[in-house]
Design goal:
- The protein is α+β, with helices and mostly antiparallel strands and 232 residues long.
- It has one domain: Alpha-D-Glucose-1,6-Bisphosphate, Chain A, domain 4, CATH 3.30.530.
- 28% of the residues lie in helices and 36% in strands.
- The protein has a nine-stranded mixed sheet.
- Helix 3 crosses helix 4.
- The protein is globular.
- The N and C termini lie far apart (47 Å).
- The relative contact order is 0.24.
- The N terminus is likely disordered.
Length: 232
């Protein structure tokens, strides 16, 4: 019944998110550039690597390294507290109209390497992920079999010049040919994903008692397939 309730909320939820996207007053600064071998992510640690993990090497199409960043003024929490709150309950930041995190392995309220989530999203977008690294103010996930993408995503926060900087960085290829069509060719999944993480940045800025300064920056570095396959 919980799953049915999530699905029933999606049409209205997507309409609300689309409306906010069209009328959002916060600036989104987007840039794209060619990538390089250094843009590949580090390997998945052997301790959490098995046949369910979708590594970058298992994906289809170009590799995209994307970074979403927001500077937060007037925050009342430290970087470790921001990540601690978000990792304990990702739904406090992610817009439920687009994504709902369900923990399927591990204890609620904490985050450890090996924990897993199923991210419920509209259409055929459900995304299983596994925690592969944690730090005082960061954590990283790897996609699992059945995910729209093959790769990794990291959430982190730091203090800089009296402000907080919250970042989401991903390294991913499409999980299969259909995903590559929807993401790279039709750009549908790409825009849904962009809106998801931009909204997460803005929600977390409000959640820590601050406000976003200078909008949200979205940087994309693209490594085409020929260059990717030639890398060691």
């Amino acid at each position: 019944m919980h799953r049915v309730g999530i699905v029933l909320r999606w049409p209205l939820g997507l309409a609300r998110v689309s409306w906010r996207y069209l009328w959002r007053v916060t600036a989104i600064h987007r840039s794209e550039a060619d990538g390089a071998p250094a843009d590949r992510p580090g390997p998945v640690p052997q301790a959490v690597l098995d046949g369910d993990v979708q590594r970058v090497e298992d994906g289809v199409g170009p590799l995209l390294r994307r970074r979403y960043a927001v500077r937060v003024v007037g925050a009342t929490l430290s970087p470790a507290q921001v990540i601690g709150r978000f990792s304990g309950d990702p739904n406090c930041g992610a817009p439920s109209e687009v994504a709902v995190f369900e923990k399927v392995r591990g204890l609620d309220g904490e985050l450890r390497v090996g924990d897993e989530f199923l991210i419920r999203m509209p259409g055929p977008w459900d995304g299983p992920v596994r925690v592969i690294d944690t730090g005082p103010a960061s954590f990283r996930l790897a996609t699992l079999r059945g995910h729209l993408e093959a790769g990794q995503i990291e959430f982190r926060c730091r203090a800089e010049d009296g402000e907080l900087v919250f970042e989401i960085e991903s390294w991913a290829r499409s999980g299969d040919r259909l995903s590559n069509l929807l993401y790279t060719r039709l750009r549908l999944a790409k825009e849904i994903q962009l809106n998801l993480w931009v909204e997460t940045c803005l929600r977390l800025a409000r959640d820590v008692g601050g406000r976003a300064r200078g909008g949200v920056r979205v940087e994309t570095r693209r490594i085409p397939l020929p260059a990717l396959t030639s890398m060691p």
